[in-house]
Model the fold of this input.
Amino acid sequence: MLRVQVVAAWPHRHLQRELLLEEGATVADAVRLAGLAAAPVAGYAVFGIGAQPAQPLCDGDRVELLRPLQVDPKEARRRRAATRAR
Done:
């Protein structure tokens, strides 16, 4: 059996589920069983490293549901630079 955490985070709050999965379980299996994917998900990570849904999990892994970006990072930098230039 694998003990896995699935985490979804937003500003000022997070949800976490601990699961027991069979050997050979994947990221997609963990996300489906955790029931946390109701919000839009831009991708997945295991301990902060990008992961594909078919990636097999190891005991103790933490699967993170990644939110879509609210602002393009390049645009955010342009806005900060414009504000400082004034």
About this structure: Residues 2-85 form a domain with the Ubiquitin-like (UB roll) fold (CATH 3.10.20.30). The chain has one domain: 2-85. DSSP finds two helices and five strands in the chain.
